[in-house]
Amino acid sequence: MSMAVEMSSKQPTKDFFSSPALSLSLAGIFRNASSGSTNPEEDFLGRRVADDEDRTVEMSSENSGPTRSRSEDNLEGEEDQEEEDGAGNKGNKRKRKKYHRHTTDQIRHMEALFKETPHPDEKQRQQLSKQLGLAPRQVKFWFQNRRTQIKAIQERHENSLLKAELEKLREENKAMRESFSKANSSSCPNCGGGGGGGGSPDDLHLENTKLKAELDKLRAALGRTPYPLQASCSDDQHRRVGSLELYTGVFALEKSRIVEIANRATLEVQKMATSGEPLWLRSLETGREILNYDEYLKEFPQAQASSFHGRKTIEASRDVGIVFMDAHKLAQSFMDVEQWKEMFACLISKAVTVDVIRQGEGPSRIDGAIQLMFGEMQLLTPVVPTREVYFVRSCRQLSPEKWVIVDVSVSVEEDNNSTEKEGSLLRCRKRPSGCIIEDTSNGHSKVTWVEHLDLSASTVQPLFRSFVNTGLAFGARHWVATLQLHCERLVFFMATNVPTKDSLGVTTLAGRKSVLKMAQRMTQSFYRAIAASSYHQWNKITTKTGQDMRVSSRKNLHDPGEPTGVIVCASSSLWLPVSPTLLFDFFRDETRRHEWDALSNGAHVQSIVSLSKGQDRGNSVSIQTVKSREKSTWVLQDNCTNSYESVVVYAPVDINTTQLVIAGHDPSNIQILPCGFSIIPDGVESRQLVISSAQEDRNTQGGSLLTLALQTLVNQSPAAKLNMESVESVTNLVSVTLHNIKRSLQIEDC
Questions:
Q1: d(CA 674, CA 524)
Q2: DSSP code for 628
Q3: Which of 23, 301, 564, 629 is most buried, by CB atoms within 10 Å?
Q4: pLDDT at 252
Q5: Claim to verify: residue 536 and residue 602 sit in the same structural domain
């Protein structure tokens, strides 16, 4: 019988830690993001990097012995001078080395070259020395020092991983002993056997031997045995690093092997993107394409050999769309992790380039480039778990007008078919996935996206189960729709000939850009606040009315874009028998704001600024004035919609500072604490509608999954403790808002 998988058709930080070669600084960055830390170097190493750099050993090619030097200093290269010992020991001679501290500009230039070429050749060193006014020997020693520092950090981190593995082995050994002890204590008097679970000492010994073998394999992969941790690194720092369980499997593969896997994946993505039947079949019920899995295994037999043990779910999808960006620029954005994260801000909560496997060619240095990357994928609700994945990304130019971006997970497990360790953060692995980008005309590109994932079995809340299990949540349609919306926003942001009707209330282009920037920052902050990312720890509570909610809290100390103090976020998700289009229109209509916004109940609401940021009139930014008897408040609102999902984000803003933004001032440090709604289809196309914006929508749209998140500053002191009264005030506001929505839309309790 044919198997099928359904899819959709439709700070100041130092430059030292910005190097992609620093693959092992990842844990410190991730685990300290939620605490607002802006110095990943100190968080990761637990002390100033400069102190560590001062202890770097400089290895001279002319002298096999090590010579101590500062990392930012280098020897002047002067001849050693002899001094007579004042005590009369004339035979004893001292060698004096003269040190020179590099300037900030010299360090910056050398760091820039180091990011591209950690091992510069003689010609590059000569050219750089002339440019910076340094001796070639100084440049050579500086690069040696920098490589030594990176290697030391990597070794310390790998050592922490081994220590964590040893501790895990001890705990499992202890658990097995306790299990055996309990089994003996509850043995059956008739047969003498254990009445409970457990096993014989031989079974436990065998299992423990397997665990030791796994640890030995890890040691062999790293190429050495553990050594004592340095006393200068605190236990807390190593615990933070170890808790991430940095993906080390790829480091056991030769780079040539990784390149080979990436090349093979590129061919597979090209085939998957261009093939029709029988590889892809179209569903008569949903109109979405289905991957014929039997045909897939015939076409790619190596996929069977690299299947993942213990996994129960496969998601495959394909979609095509036209975007407002040329192919080359779009390919560059995929290879720049910050731009990639910004393009898919609603889908990606974390992303980092762990290592550069191979540098690219051409003017932009991306053709043929291969990078090891990490990403955490999210849905805009705290009730759906995030998906964390390490993968290799490659970029290749197929023709002057066509590029291909390919992602594929690689690890030791792929070669030896060993099972993945339980509890690993690698809950998701990418089979060859990616997109083909082809220039069309007038700066547009055609994007054909293939998403192919292996997932471990996981429990999804019933409300979102259909949406996630059908592959809609993280399928190709979601990625393409998000990319289209982002590129369209960029076009409208850079436009200079904006019609008056698309820029009401703002008289200058500078003012328009400032307001759009402020709205984008607000929306991205909302994305971070609402999802289930490990940035936050969500607690499930039940209100007095029996409604389930998720609550998280955080302390803001350093982010000037948010108010300082203790912030509480409360969120609730529910199904509504209303089409997503109607629900989105309801929230963006300022004349109906008083129907759902508890804080503007009875007030007069009027838009004083309205800026279009897309072809769909629903994509807009507005500033609304909410006038009550007591005061007047300004509310910034960002409305985003595409063929997949809709988002409405809003926040009260200070009137005086917002007036400066409208005049064109920088909005970066304006404090904003956003609230909002995420609206997605429920994944059930055949569900009968109760309310629809048009009669013909009844058979084409299902209901909506609505997620509401409200944030409140409960105390201006970051040191204050959170109390239940503060939590209840936020959850009550969520309950009132949801009740108002149901009442306005004439919906009975769902």
A1: 9
A2: -
A3: 23
A4: 52
A5: yes
